[in-house]
Write a structure and sequence with these properties.
Rossmann fold, about 40% helix, about 325 residues, alpha/beta, about 10% strand
């Protein structure tokens, strides 16, 4: 999810340079809400039951594209573009990443992945401020409409994403409980999102309590288009290094992101207005990879356990104070 969202700066640049509908974009259908409303996109090509990889490959070859950008550079994208001359592929810098993960050898510069995407086409000194184009509100299904309207009427909601793609990228749930006990009364609603079993079970339990704020449990309820729209209604976002954090940051929401096992040095820090929180101590085992694992390779998970709730609480309170100060001056 994050990889797709982080291609938006490339679309922004192409739109500014070539205008509306200048890009055909290939991605899996369930990621399409992240891209389909961008004005640079002419059409989405989504491999699946109705469009096999073989037929998609033939379709790409029939077109007269001036350039083909491979911003994924995996076996699938290599298959789709093999033999074509006008293909530009982004540099993953896998060796740098592996040296950092396995031997803790840091070889700067580590460019942000969006910068690498842009450099695939042409050199640019910076990443433009980018915004994620939202789907229409009609994407909110009837079973979630009441929650959506409630949040539209609220003045201050915290969007909390306690899950992640792998367990090692997740802050312990008890730490989030301590955070909510301290900041719950600052918000009209605490909205918990995510599709993993761990956060769903946790949200089911804590939403029954009355000491953690007014909670709305939306875990395992939202499709991607709905997720984007619900995040857009929040005033503040807090969560682990995961796809929803990228969405929040690209919607220009104040975004707090927990980096434990992973690190911003890999180049996947959410764009725009995001605040990373990392372990307060130097761990010789960190970072151990950018994708995460089912369990800590060393069995202790100190990277996440060492991040205390007070640090996160202070960051959230500081962020809310900044929002309040801005509101007073406008």
């Amino acid at each position: 999810m994050g990889d797709i969202a982080l291609t938006n700066p490339v679309l922004d640049i192409l739109y500014d340079k070539y205008g509306r509908g200048c890009v055909d974009y290939v991605t899996k259908s369930h990621f399409s809400p992240l891209i389909e409303n961008h004005p640079a996109v002419n059409r989405l090509l989504c491999p699946g039951k109705s469009l096999s990889l073989k037929n998609l490959r033939q379709s790409i070859r029939k077109e007269t594209y001036s350039v083909i950008l491979d911003l994924h550079k995996n076996l699938r994208s290599l298959y789709l573009t093999a033999g074509l001359k006008n293909v530009k592929r982004y540099k993953k810098e896998i060796m740098k990443r592996e040296l950092l993960s396995r031997l803790k050898i840091y070889q700067p510069p580590f460019l942000h992945v969006s910068q690498k995407y842009i450099n695939t086409l042409f050199k640019s000194p910076n990443i433009p401020q980018s915004f994620l184009y939202l789907p229409d509100e009609s994407a909110v299904r009837e079973e979630n409409r009441e929650f959506y309207n409630t949040l539209k009427r609220s003045k201050r909601a915290l969007i909390l994403a306690p899950g992640a793609s792998k367990p090692t990228k997740m802050l312990p749930m008890e730490t989030w409980e301590h955070v909510l006990a301290s900041v719950g009364d600052l918000f009209d609603y605490i909205v918990v999102i995510g599709n993993g079993h761990a956060e769903s079970r946790w949200a089911d339990d804590v939403s029954k309590r009355n000491d953690l704020g007014n909670m709305i449990n939306l875990t395992s309820r939202l499709e991607l288009a709905e997720l984007m729209l619900f995040i857009s209604l929040g005033e503040y976002f807090a969560g682990n290094d995961s796809g929803p954090a990228h969405i929040a940051a690209m919607l220009h929401k104040p975004t707090l992101v927990i980096f434990g096992q992973t690190s911003p040095d890999y180049g996947f820090k959410p764009l725009n207005n995001s605040t990373p929180v990392e372990p307060p101590v130097h761990l010789i085992c960190r970072p151990c990879g950018h994708l995460g694992y089912k369990s800590c390779p060393l069995g202790h998970h100190d990277c996440m356990r060492s991040i205390d709730s007070e640090t996160i609480t202070n960051e959230i309170k500081h962020g809310i104070q900044r929002i309040s100060n801005i509101e007073k001056t406008t």
